[in-house]
Amino acid sequence: MIGAAVWLWPGGALYAGPSLRLGPHSGAVSCLAVGVDAPFVVQRAPAGALPVRTALIAPRVRNHITAGGDRMVFLYLDPGSASDAACRVRFTAGDRDVLVRHEAEAAILAQAARLSVHSPPGQITTWIAEATGYDATSFTDPRVGLAIQRLLGADQPLPAVFLAEELGLSESRFLRLFRDNTGTSYRRFRLWAQMHRAARALAAGHNLTRAAADGYFASPSHFSTAFHAMFGLTPSALLSGGLTIRSLDPGPTGVPRKSG
């Protein structure tokens, strides 16, 4: 998998590189698929096969992507997040399970063709913002930003009740506040943060066992199962051919911001 790269941050992930041989699966997150140099086919029952250049596949929708070209870009977004919601309205056809034909398809295809393992973080975050139509800069309630920074910097898993107490809130009030400001649940965001930590370990050259431990997963198999549910393949399969993994700085809002 020469020339492949993954960028990961709490709330999403981006893959750019050679076409992956994904088997039929139903992912746990939303997936924006882009055929960089040729159309690809999304197969699902009972709708049949859809030949497209861009598609947004909803979570838990069983599908099978067959690439028609050499390169693909996959942008994975937390379902129900602000980025996911903004991205959904940018598609012009399809249904709630598989949306197709991004309104700025020509532009994001041209920019996707320039993404590579050598792309600087600003180029990546700009593409993400333009593909989704969402560029977070702040939260309505600063307490959520503080909670996210504590979560990302913690050296142990942080239950919601712990952060709620730090902020002087009940757990139920904190969970509502978190969802209202981020568009996703605290549990889901914490899982993305765990993936973020595991990716940093892999990027540093550590093995899957160390990555699982650094990400607070119970075991390497737990990490592998969670990863497969999110992305449609195991981390060992993704790493087997050579891969560059980079961790994007989420900044104060927990999501990458558009550069410039």
Summarize the structure.
With 260 residues, the chain is an alpha+beta fold. Helix content is 38%, strand content 22%.
List keywords for this structure.
38% helix, eight-stranded mixed sheet, 10 helices, globular, 260 residues
Present the secondary structure layout.
Blueprint: E1 5-9, E2 12-18, E3 30-35, E4 40-44, E5 48-52, E6 54-57, E7 64-67, E8 71-77, H1 82-88, E9 91-94, E10 98-102, H2 105-112, H3 121-132, H4 142-153, H5 160-166, H6 171-182, H7 186-203, H8 208-214, H9 220-231, H10 235-239, E11 244-247
Parallel strand pairs: 1-11
Antiparallel strand pairs: 1-2, 2-8, 3-6, 3-8, 4-5, 4-7, 6-10, 9-10
What does this structure look like?
- With 260 residues, this protein is an alpha+beta fold.
- It is 38% helix and 22% strand.
- It is built from ten helices and eleven strands.
- The chain has helices at 82-88, 105-112, 121-132, 142-153, 160-166, 171-182, 186-203, 208-214, 220-231, 235-239; strands at 5-9, 12-18, 30-35, 40-44, 48-52, 54-57, 64-67, 71-77, 91-94, 98-102, 244-247.
- An eight-stranded mixed sheet has the order 9-10-6-3-8-2-1-11. A three-stranded antiparallel sheet has the order 5-4-7, with no helix packed on it.
- β4 and β5 form a beta hairpin.
- The chain is globular and about 50 Å long.
- The two termini are 31 Å apart.
- The model has no long low-confidence stretch (mean pLDDT 88).
